[in-house]
Input
Amino acid sequence: MKLNLIVTLTAATLLHLACKPSASKFDYPVTAKVDTIDTYFGHQVADPYRWLEDDQSAQTKEWVRKQNEVTFGYLNSITFRDSLRERLTRIWNYPRQSAPWKSGGKYFFTKNDGLQNQSVFYMMDKIGDEPVMILDPNVLSGDGTVSLTNFTVSDDGKYLGYGISRGGSDWNEFFIRDLASGKDLTDHLMWIKFSGIAWHKDGFYYNRYPQPREGDELKGANSNSRIYYHKAGTPQEKDIPVYEEPENPHRSFSGDVTNDGQILVISASESTSGNALYFKRLDIANAPVVKVVEDFNSDYSVVDHINGYLYVHTNYLAPNYQLVRIDLKNPSRENWEVVIGQSDTDVLAAVTAVGGRFIGNYMHDAHSAVKIFDLGGGYLHDVELRSLGSAKG
Output
């Protein structure tokens, strides 16, 4: 039914486009060129549209206005656009609810009445209780331009740390909500990008950049990422710097805390693939940061810390990924042990540690296959899934 709808709408759109004037008939605004030339390694590279990088200039704003005038002038001429919008609205208008998850000793789930832009978050002390609404992202702004980017509950269930983005920006702002009262604390953290909220005791670890110069917020280069520790109820200026590499200003860092709260895991990245891996013991006062992997040739993701070992999901020497065990006392590569070896045919997409077991989520013939292992990597059994699809959680 849905496939037929898509095919029908696509055919109708193509038919409509075929009946419209060709693109050469449109009166596109002229895009000015400038004589900007950079020299890289002895080669001159022209960049005639450099002026468009200044998104706040009057010239760029006027260019955008004229482009939108052409674009929406055409889109508004499509006769069946309103009926298409009405049909899609009817299809998408149905209530939905997520599966509950447990965090900080409480249960949470999301619910959407059908046409809400963002789902609403609810909390229960135990399954079966009357749920309490704790965060509605739809009321964070009157015009709907603020979106929720992070939702993390403290280990003791006292606080909710959440992040927002304004106008689709990569810049995030973090806030803390008291779950008992439903009110926000005064905490307001700024200049955050690509960061999680890693709770530890009465605060959390996160990473941010230095405050950019006024006017450069959306166009300036981001460098000198640093991990901080923020204590709930304190201003951002009091945050404690934890890790940085001034000699490598273009590296970005992220921090996470293992389930037992004993290890801060630090991931360093220079691009979209490959990361370095460090750790810092939180159960030992003034423990140093230990660098396990310093190159960026493979991907490393810590699954958990168990009895002095880090269990790491990685594609190091394993294109289909494997699970390795790293001794915190002897973390060099020659001491690593393979716990779950790579499959010859399936990609080990993710590993989760639950209840003294490892859950391996494999990609098999374009659908998920879930297998259970003991902590030594011994295969126990498959999880029977009711249908083909993508499993997560």
Remarks:
- The chain is about 10% helix and 40% strand.
- The CA atoms of residues 274 and 296 lie 5 Å apart.
